[in-house]
Specification:
Arc Repressor Mutant, subunit A, 206 residues, binds FE2/S2 (inorganic) cluster, Glutaredoxin, 36% helix, alpha+beta
């Protein structure tokens, strides 16, 4: 992984731009970003460790604590809240058996956090899970995706897509809503995560 990280700066006009994909790789490898991992990324990219830590703590897509294998990012901003997002969060917490966003389900599979607007208000209430958007949420849909993840034998996960040739796509409003579709917008990493809820983040000036 470090060899892969060391190759990243050559892909960018500004070598320091490689810090986010590098952190993304480290997180993918470790599950979350430990202080040691951030130090190693800084060394590999020949960057100041404080800068790397500043980036890691600014974006909510980077996790400094262990998370579930599948992390729900539930939007509880205005449009989603008006359409029942808080009830969705309550149901989700009960379904995965956690009390709050710092907890991981006992099987290690799930955790969640509430996030600000994900830019898909017309599909409210909505959330992101495993780099895909889920829209028009109901308690039954939450139960369904949890059951799917629990029953999945082989994860279709990031490495193949990340290191493949898929172009990034925007989760913007031009995305068509599939008839009856559950998930529809793929977000290709690296992307900055959604803004943290005020007062819950670990934002630190870079
Ligand atoms: S308010 Fe939830 S996506 Fe915009």
């Amino acid at each position: 992984m470090l060899d892969e990280i060391k190759e990243l700066p050559a892909r960018y006009p500004q070598p320091r731009s490689a810090v986010m994909p590098a952190l993304d790789l480290a997180q993918e490898e470790l599950g979350h970003l430990t202080p040691e991992a951030m130090s190693e990324v800084a060394a590999a990219l020949e960057l100041d460790p404080g800068y790397v830590e500043g980036v890691a703590t600014f974006y909510s897509l980077f996790h400094l604590e262990p998370t579930g294998k599948h992390r729900f990012y539930v939007c509880t901003n205005l449009s989603c809240a008006l359409r029942g997002a808080n009830e969705i969060v309550d149901h989700l917490k009960a379904a995965i058996g956690v009390m709050g966003p710092v907890q991981v389900s006992s099987d290690g599979l799930f955790s969640y956090e509430e996030v600000e607007c994900l830019g898909a208000c017309e599909f409210a209430p909505m959330m992101r899970l495993d780099h895909r958007y889920h829209h028009d949420l109901t308690e039954a849909k939450i139960d369904q995706v949890i059951a799917e993840r629990k029953g999945r034998k082989e994860e279709i996960h990031l490495p193949a897509r990340r290191r493949g040739a898929s172009p990034p796509r925007s989760p913007g409003r031009s995305v068509a809503k599939p008839p009856g579709g559950e998930t529809h917008v793929a977000i290709e990493p690296p992307l900055p995560g959604p803004p943290r809820k005020a007062g819950r983040g670990k934002r630190k000036d870079a």
